[in-house]
Design a protein that fits this description.
heterodimer; A: mainly alpha; 2 domains; two-stranded antiparallel ribbon; flat; B: alpha/beta; Rossmann fold; 11 helices
């Protein structure tokens, strides 16, 4: 069965794709931090952040369709919450749009939420679409993220779709035997399916552990890191960190 | 000649934590260089026995691998020398990429970076998966997964290769490729399977297990031609499959030799 992977397009060839994940992690997280701490009325600073991200996307040759699609999956959740603020907020001046009063302060809050979430989500899209997920995890490990956390994510990445497929097969088997899902007493079946799925996962966990032991596992997942933090990486990190800082100080 | 034992098992008993007995006194001797099939009905204890070969399970009795008793101090060395391939490749391939999976064993052995990369390259080359190292196991076909699972132990350079149901769920072409792959590997092999023709093709010797014991042990052709024995232990050759003795006295291997023997004997019947 086909699934949309988190790191779609991470296999492309581009200068951004080739960078050590650590450089991208540090640089883009720095960009997000600088962005969210910028006062909302420094409009040129936000233009600079977005400009930087647009150039990175161009440089990485990511299809715009993909970037926008991802952006529009995440943004609505944030914007739906913020969209009502201008109508209910008091303070600042206000504008009259026919019968509706819109507060200027509220508009600034909306702009603040909208632009900061756009910049942040774009940064994450750039990171996840130019870095294969396993490499991202390795990068996090190299940056001293807790091993327990990265191992957990790594197993999730490997098995989440195995589990989804298993659930899918169970559902087909259930529906093939005339399950309609219309009656309350049929709800019990769903409970049983969840329990079965849990048991199967538990047993798989035991088998995977045996397979790890069989290959000499001794409590520590050792992995090879195939990237090097070279001059390009240093350049990237400095640029992506310093550019927004400068833009913010100047505006 | 090979006469050093690879596996020595004497009086092995094992019961699962809930008390169900799985092995009730297994004796088995496998010499270096041998290729042995283990067959038997479901629940005969075949897979349980395999898990004793590298100390994942430890029962009562004596188990020695290449002369080393399976005890805690030797586990590291034994697990390097015994390559255990599990039945479900999704259990064996637990890393985010094929490369990481094949590198897992060598990394645990403490090899250097160059040695690991080299071992992975070689193992993937042997199983014919060169170039797929950056893929997630999830994106491989089932046959490719099976071969990747074998690569994960080949990269550790094992002296004994142990396979649990290697041919299950494979389509005929993938099964043939696997068979050829195994025949090309000159290490000691133990194969647990229900696929009796696969045993004919890949093993010289077969061990029949039932209810936690070894009930027959001998040359493939004579054991698997014994219909009464097979029937007593819930086994049977596939319908329409009749083993033929090849030139060297054991079972005819492969379609070509079988055909040749059939042609040679056609006039006699």
């Amino acid at each position: 069965m086909k699934h949309a992977f988190l790191d779609e397009y991470s296999g492309l060839e581009s200068p951004v794709h080739r960078l050590d994940p650590r450089a991208k992690l540090v640089g883009l997280v720095a960009l997000i931090v600088v962005c969210v701490t910028t006062p909302p009325n420094l409009y040129t600073a936000f233009a600079a952040y977005l400009g930087l991200e647009v150039s990175l996307i161009l440089l990485s040759r990511l299809p715009w369709r993909h970037v926008l699609k991802r952006l529009f999956i995440v943004l609505p959740f944030i914007l739906v919450v913020a969209a009502f603020i201008p109508f209910f907020s008091r303070g600042g001046g206000s504008y009259n749009l026919g019968p509706v009063r819109v507060s200027a302060h509220g508009l600034l809050v909306l702009w603040n939420v909208a632009v900061k979430s756009t910049v942040s989500v774009l940064a994450v899209i750039i990171l996840s679409s130019t870095t294969p997920f396993p490499d991202l995890l390795r990068g996090m490990e190299k940056l001293k993220a807790p091993r327990l956390f990265t191992s957990l994510l790594s197993f999730t990445y490997r098995y989440v779709f195995v589990l989804v497929d298993e659930a899918q097969r169970m559902r087909r088997a259930r529906d093939s035997r005339g399950w309609s899902g219309r009656w309350l007493w049929q709800a019990k079946v769903i409970g049983h399916m969840i329990a079965t799925l849990f048991l199967r996962s538990y047993e798989r966990g035991e088998r995977v552990y045996a397979a790890m032991l069989a290959r000499g596992y001794g409590g520590e997942v050792r992995t090879l890191y195939l990237y090097e933090f070279g001059p390009l990486e240093i350049g990237f990190t400095v640029l992506v960190t310093l550019f927004p800082v400068t833009a913010r100080l100047l505006s | 000649m090979h006469h050093r034992p690879a596996v020595e098992i004497k009086g092995l008993f094992y019961a699962y934590p809930d008390g169900t007995p799985a092995l009730r006194g297994v004796d088995l001797l496998v010499d270096e260089g041998e290729s042995v099939g283990i067959v038997g009905p479901n629940g005969a204890g075949k897979s349980t026995l395999l898990l004793h070969l590298n100390g994942i399970l430890q029962g009562r009795g004596e188990v020695k691998i290449f002369g080393l008793p399976v005890v805690k101090e030797n586990l590291r060395e034994i697990r390097r020398r015994v390559g255990l391939v599990f039945q479900d490749p999704d259990d064996q391939l637990f890393s985010p990429t094929v490369f990481d999976d094949v590198a897992f064993g060598p990394m645990n052995m403490g090899l250097s970076r160059e040695e690991v990369v080299e071992a992975v390259k070689r193992a993937l080359g042997v199983v014919g998966l060169t170039g797929l190292d950056r893929k997630s196991a999830f994106h491989l076909s089932f046959g490719q997964k099976k071969r990747a699972a074998i690569a994960t132990v080949l990269s550790m350079n094992p002296d004994l290769l142990v396979l649990d149901e290697p041919s299950s769920n494979l389509d005929p072409r993938a099964r043939r490729e696997l068979s050829e792959l195994l025949q090309g590997m000159k290490v000691t092999k133990i194969v647990v399977t229900h696929d009796l023709p696969f045993v004919f093709e890949n093993c010289e010797r077969v061990v029949v297990m039932d209810e936690g014991r070894v009930v027959a042990d001998g040359e493939v052709f004579s054991v698997l031609s014994d219909e009464d024995l097979l029937e007593r232990h819930g086994l049977e050759l596939p319908y329409g499959f009749y083993p033929i003795r090849g030139e060297n006295g054991s079972a005819a291997k492969g379609r070509k030799e079988r055909k040749k023997v059939e042609e040679d004997t056609a006039g006699d019947i």
